[in-house]
Amino acid sequence: MRIAVCGTKGGSGKSTLAGLLALCLADADKYVVTLDRDPQATLSTWLRGLGGKDGSAKPTPNENEPYGRTTLGDYFSTSASKPEIVIADFPPASPEALLKMLNEKGGFTWDILLVPCRPAVADIWSIRSFLDKLEGYNGKVRLVMNALDNSSISKAGSLDSLLEGIKTPRLKASLSRRACYSYAMVNGWKALDEKAKSEVLSLALEISR
User: How is the chain split among helix, strand and coil, in percent rounded to 5?
Assistant: First the structure.
């Protein structure tokens, strides 16, 4: 399965989502490869710190591998076969720029595009036109609610109202606002409590269906 995590603005939780999914699936003995397409290199810096193999030898872009690359499979799995799962973290971009990046590998089709969104009115406003322009992409596009908390806007009824009119299906599973997700950048999967692991696993299972 090939998973692209993307969005139109920074701070939506793209790198966190991509990294947590990679750790979760690798913990389940899946052969996972992550591609960090964002020049900020958050994902590759994070996973390299946990022992992931770096294909570019640098955390920043270079001419041989423009966006950096981190391979988790060699670290988390003994499998010598091709990766079962590829997860890519794309930089914030317009729909037009994103589609160009998605297609630039020539025939490399993404099975699903995950678009994380925080429960903030401005974030939901910005995501509407982005999702509209991605409609019809030859892979599946799914909205993922991220950083939900106890505020009124995070409640199911409020979210349903704010998301009204958005045609892109929203995953039933979501991520709440948890400090341990940040700790996972230092200590990996073991940093998560059981509720956090359950959230990420629910996302992974829903995506894989």
Answer: 40, 15, 45
